[in-house]
Design goal:
three-stranded antiparallel β-sheet; globular; 6 helices; single chain
Length: 154
């Protein structure tokens, strides 16, 4: 998991921008629901919707997605206690990984290649479920591993 900093006042660090660490987990829960429904119904529309969410999350920032807006508007005001924060880069990378799989799933849907749709959607669903249920962000872990590997080679 990405390193968590419990300092509420810090919005940026030398590493990058900080976000509420609870937001990506909430978003993962909504993503799990959307992808499970897409998988059961083989809905290209739901995959296209999730692709749009991944696009915003991966290329603008996870804090700018519709799911983040729901979290900030409806859920966050009701939460109490310290706000755990984390660097935005690992969750943003995870959104880009989701984007790649959603593109493959949409391609499978459009081209009527059911196996491609099913496999790509299932991989996305598994990663989202891990984050939502166990707070284990597979894409974040991939990001941290890549950072370690690239820093080691210097």
């Amino acid at each position: 998991m990405a390193t968590i900093n419990t300092s509420v006042s810090a919005q940026t660090t030398s590493k990058g921008r900080l976000i509420d660490a609870r937001g990506p987990r909430f978003s993962a829960a909504l993503t799990t629901l959307v992808l499970a429904l897409a998988l059961v119904t083989h809905s290209g529309f739901l995959i296209a919707f999730q692709l749009a969410v991944f696009t915003i999350g991966g290329f603008v920032g996870p804090q700018k997605t519709p799911y983040a807006w729901i979290f900030k508007t409806l859920l966050k005001p009701r939460l109490t206690g310290e706000v755990p924060t984390e660097d935005v880069r690992p969750p943003q990378f995870a959104q880009k990984v989701g984007f790649v799989f959603a593109v493959a799933a949409l391609a499978g849907s459009i081209s009527h290649v059911s196996l491609l749709f099913t496999i790509a959607t299932s991989f996305c669903l598994a990663a989202a479920f891990l984050n939502a249920a166990f707070n284990f962000c597979l894409g974040c872990e991939m990001y941290l591993l890549l950072v370690r590997l690239t820093n080691r080679s210097k």
